[in-house]
Amino acid sequence: MFQKVFEGLVRMQKLPGYEKVLLVSLQLPHEDEREVEESLEELARLADTAGARVVGRVVQRARRPDPATFLGRGKVRDEIAPACRELGVELVICDHELSPAQVRNLEEELGVRVIDRTQLILDIFARRARTREGKLQVELAQLEYLYPRLAGKGIELSRLGGGIGTRGPGETKLETDRRRIKRRITELRRELDEVRRHRTLLRTRRQDVPVTLVSLVGYTNAGKSTLLNALTGAGVPAEDKLFATLDPTTRRLVLPNNEVVLLTDTVGFIRRLPHHLVAAFRATLEEVTEADLLLHVVDVSNPDYPDQVKAVEDVLASLGAGEKPTILVFNKVDRLTAEEPWLVPPGRPAVAVSALTGRGLDELRRLIMDVLKDQRVRREFLVPYQRGDVLNLLYEKGEVLSREYTPEGVRLEVELGAVWASRAAARLGKDNPGRISG
């Protein structure tokens, strides 16, 4: 009966320590089959990262989600429920976000726990957060996801229903839980504001020291941590798992011209990244928005990499970093055969590397150096006489085109790298940001 529905059913259903899960999804009219399958495959990898064992998958074609059960009631009753019993399924994961009512109804129909893609990602983040900041961010995201769903939790929480004989202490407990969660959310936001202020202070200090900031961005499991290790010897953990890195790591990178830049590894992105996570991790993601250059790491061995590139660029745009100077780093070329083509977008700086074998890393270092060198601007600064540090920076890093002595200080027209122009402007303050020359 289940041969058609559950293609690729794994044979190892009794492995100890693994929760057996069933993946379900809906194919809407505007989605093609390949898109749905790729998303389900990614969901399977997320489940594996969380320590689950996928024993089956169900996809239903429908014009719209069922408001009560998401999937059609007949599908749930006649196919999914019997399959859960026959396969010993302990958890059903939906590839879309579910409403509290849909979770409750599905759990009652199926007799097993039901979660959605967002909850799965939050669970992975909770397992992998190591620093205090990461743990705070994950807890905030989880509570903001849970708060509107508290009254609709299904069989995983005991609850009293509505109607005669069910009112009383249960409702008081629910309101108490809500108040506690709301209070904890406020506390977490306050603590993360302190983290953000601390990060802002660190970035201000970094701007006082003229060092270029480079951030690694990319889809989860693209190889960012492996690349950071290969370039800097950072020694950070690098696993073949989704979201192996949550906490940013910064290391020094020396370029071929002996210039030193700071290279930061950041959390990976994913399609339909839950907005709770984007909001909670904003303090961490500010490392991306403050960077002078982005290295967009792409797993070119993944046949879905063009869509992954777009997903990352969409998140960068939502963070206000879509226009930042970017180098496309096509990683994992060691996994390609000679016959497998891959496309480099015309007019964009790009390089092919293997962080694992070291192929192309020298070319990447040279490209970083060249891109930073090419970002030259012409600026005019009024430097007070007592700010010899800024004068030294402008003369050392730029070409002085004109100089005029005024009562307030030295007026300089300088052509220099955009990074150093911003550093000089930061030192001089908001009243003297470095005016663009004609």
TrEMBL record:
Residues 171-205 form a coiled coil. GTP binds at residues 218-225, 243-247, 265-268, 331-334, 354-356. CDD domains: HflX. Keywords: Coiled coil, Cytoplasm, GTP-binding, Magnesium, Metal-binding, Nucleotide-binding. GO terms for cellular component: cytoplasm. Gene3D superfamilies: 6.10.250.2860, GTPase HflX, N-terminal domain (3.40.50.11060), P-loop containing nucleotide triphosphate hydrolases (3.40.50.300). Its cofactor is Mg(2+). PROSITE patterns: G_HFLX. It comes from the Bacteria. Mg(2+) binds at S225, T245. Pfam families: GTP-bdg_M (PF16360), GTP-bdg_N (PF13167), HflX_C (PF19275), MMR_HSR1 (PF01926). GTPase that associates with the 50S ribosomal subunit and may have a role during protein synthesis or ribosome biogenesis. Monomer. Associates with the 50S ribosomal subunit. Belongs to the TRAFAC class OBG-HflX-like GTPase superfamily. HflX GTPase family. This is GTPase HflX.
